[in-house]
Design brief:
- By secondary structure, this protein is α+β, with helices and mostly antiparallel strands.
- Strands 1, 2, 3, 4, 5, 7, 8 and 9 form an 8-stranded mixed sheet that branches.
- Strand 4 and strand 5 form a beta hairpin.
- The longest helix is centred in the first third of the chain and has 36 residues.
- It is elongated.
- The relative contact order is 0.12.
Length: 181
C-alpha cells in the first residue's frame, strides 16, 4: 500500500503590498532623476552657449542701442513705428523725444494743428529712417506719466528734436504744453 498525503488546498495569495509600493517608488524616482538631470543639462548648456557666444551677445546689445531699422507710421502692430511728431516705438519700447513738443494729431484743437502735427510725424519718420541714431537718456526722469521712455534721439552729435525745431515743426520743451492754434 502506498501512502498518500492528504490533499490540502493552498489559497492563492496576492503579492505582498510592499513590493508594489517599492516598484512604484522606484519608477517614480527614476522619472524624477531623469527630469532633474534634464534641467541640469539644459542649464549647463545655456550657460555654456552664453559664455562662448558672449562677444555675439554684446554686439547684438550694442546694435540695439545704435541702429537704423525701418520706421513706418503706426498701425495695429506697434514694434518699430512713428506715433506722432514726438513719440515713436523702437523695438517694442515706446519712446517720447524729451527735448521737444509737437502739435497733436490724436486730439487736435484746430485744423492747422492737425496739419502741422502730420507734417511733424512724417518728418520724424523720415529723420529716423535716414540712418543710425542713438537714444540718450535725460537727467532726472526715465519715464513720463504715460509710461513712455524719455530719450533724446541723436545722430552725428545733433538732436533730431532740435532739427524738427529748426524746421518749424516743433517747439523746444519748456515743461508744459502750449496751444498750437
Amino acid at each position: 500500500m502506498s501512502y498518500r498525503k492528504p490533499f490540502r488546498a493552498v489559497p492563492i495569495r496576492p503579492a505582498p503590498r510592499y513590493r508594489n509600493r517599492r516598484i512604484r517608488g522606484y519608477r517614480k524616482r527614476n522619472w524624477q532623476t531623469a527630469g532633474l538631470g534634464l534641467v541640469v543639462f539644459a542649464t549647463v548648456f545655456l550657460v555654456g552657449m552664453t559664455i562662448t557666444n558672449w562677444p555675439l551677445v554684446s554686439s547684438v546689445l550694442a546694435a540695439s542701442r545704435t541702429s537704423s531699422p525701418h520706421f513706418e507710421l503706426c498701425g495695429l502692430v506697434r514694434s518699430t513705428c512713428v506715433v506722432d511728431g514726438d513719440t515713436f516705438w523702437f523695438e517694442g519700447h515706446k519712446i517720447r523725444i524729451a527735448d521737444i513738443d509737437t502739435p497733436e494729431i490724436s486730439e487736435p484743437q484746430c485744423d492747422s494743428e492737425y496739419r502741422r502735427g502730420m507734417q511733424a510725424t512724417y518728418r520724424l519718420r523720415d529723420l529716423l529712417n535716414e540712418g543710425p541714431f542713438d537714444l540718450k537718456p535725460i537727467g532726472g526722469r526715465d519715464k513720463d506719466q504715460y509710461g513712455r521712455e524719455l530719450r533724446i534721439a541723436v545722430r552725428n552729435g545733433r538732436s533730431l528734436g532740435n532739427q524738427l525745431v529748426s524746421e518749424g515743426l516743433a517747439r523746444t520743451w519748456t515743461g508744459r504744453r502750449e496751444p498750437w492754434c
